[in-house]
Amino acid sequence: MARWISAARFSLRILPRALVCGTILLCGVSGPLPAAFAQGTGTRATDLALPRFVSLKSDRVNVRVGPSRDHDIAWTFVKSGLPVEIIQEFENWRRIRDWEGKQGWVFHSLLSGRRTALVTPWEKSDRTPLRARSRSDADIVAELEPFVLTTVTECAGGWCRVNGEGYDGWLDQTRLFGVYPDELIED
Q1: Which residue among 11, 31, 146, 173 has its CA within the 20 to 30 Å range from the CA of 122?
Q2: Do 64 and 101 form a contact (C-beta atoms < 8 A)?
Q3: CATH for the stretch 118-177
Q4: Comparing 13-114 with 118-177, is the CATH topology the same?
């Protein structure tokens, strides 16, 4: 009998209190940036691929509206390990996108190359079967609820091996935010 793994109840972000920051969130941080910050301009700090997934290194990560500490804080993540996608680099700053599509800037040292994923954050109630092997007919060892945060150890052939507290198995890669479709991740 498969057991189910539910998401730990935590707040993904603290919304800002300042009205100006709230307006920025409502209008979308993803709006046009000054030309100096446009994709492909400015100082590229790494030669790593863009976009790419990483995870939050700290339990408190401020996301800013621009790439410096002089810019307002748009929101704050309050859970380490959450996956985010780096979509742009400017010096020591990384423009990230979360599972909801919200974008902002984070200082590079607050991010980790450790691969994590959220199970179906776009769904409210459907559980995702965790399989013993990377096959759709393999035994179900658990069912994971939406928003379960998991560590990704490998992905191949449309399946990812994931684990967390009390579970280890394979998930359909399309059920995860934190990996690209058909992305290969080697153990």
Answers
A1: 31
A2: no
A3: 2.30.30.40
A4: yes
What is 13-114's CATH number?
Answer: 2.30.30.40
Please write the tens of the pLDDT for every residue from 19-37.
Answer: 223 322 323 333 444 434 4
- The DSSP-derived string for 49-116 is -SSEEEEE-SS-EEEESSSSTTSPEEEEE--TT-EEEEEEEETTEEEEE-TT--EEEEEGGGEE---E
Phi, psi (deg, nearest 5) at residue 26? -65, -35
| 111-112 β-sheet, strand order | 13-14, 73-77, 61-64, 103-107, 93-97, 83-90, 52-56, 111-112
Whole-prediction pTM value? 0.80
Q: What is the DSSP letter of 151?
A: E
DSSP 19: H
Here the tokens at position 152 are 């990704």
If one counts every other C-beta atom within 10 angstroms of the C-beta of residue 114, the result is 14
- Please report, for the chain, the start and end positions of each structural domain, with discontinuous segments joined by +: 13-114, 118-177
Residue 5's pLDDT is what? 66
What are all long-range contacts of 163-168, with beta carbons under 8 Å and residues at least 24 apart? 164/5, 166/5, 167/5, 167/130, 167/141, 167/142, 168/141
Structure tokens at 34: 């000054």
Work out the average pLDDT over 11-20. Answer: 39
